[in-house]
């Protein structure tokens, strides 16, 4: 007869939610949603940056990750706001 205490149980590991998260400023790479959240934008905005080739993600690991270097270069390309170039009404 099998031991009733161990029947059907697997080794206990911490779930993904239970692990302590790494702060965003300490990460080596970000998901598109995390990247967008750093700018206060929606996850869709993060994916649009990728599809517009403004950001080059890593895709070799089975998901899209944006390296910290891409974040830094994205911020380095900043430009001062000039309303005359937005195509708005004058």
Topology:
Layout: E1 29-30, H1 32-38, H2 43-51, E2 66-67, H3 68-76
Q: Give the structural class.
A: mainly alpha
User: What share of the residues lie within helices?
Assistant: 25-40%
Q: How much is the average pLDDT?
A: 82
Radius of gyration: 21 Å
Distance between the termini: 85 Å
Query: What is the topology, as strand order, of the major beta sheet?
Result: 1-2
Largest sheet: 2 strands, antiparallel
- Number of DSSP helices? 3
* Tally of DSSP β-strands: 2
Principal-axis shape equals elongated
**Beta-sheet strand percentage?**
under 5%
The low-confidence runs, each spanning 5 or more residues with pLDDT under 50, are none
Helix and strand element order: EHHEH
């Amino acid at each position: 007869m099998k031991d009733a205490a161990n029947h059907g149980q697997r080794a206990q590991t911490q779930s993904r939610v239970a692990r302590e998260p790494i702060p965003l400023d300490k990460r080596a790479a970000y998901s598109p949603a995390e990247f967008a959240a750093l700018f206060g934008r929606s996850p869709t905005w993060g994916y649009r940056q990728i599809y517009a080739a403004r950001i080059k993600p890593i895709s070799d690991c089975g998901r899209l990750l944006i390296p910290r270097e891409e974040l830094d270069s994205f911020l380095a390309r900043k430009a001062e706001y000039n309303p005359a170039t937005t195509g708005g009404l004058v």
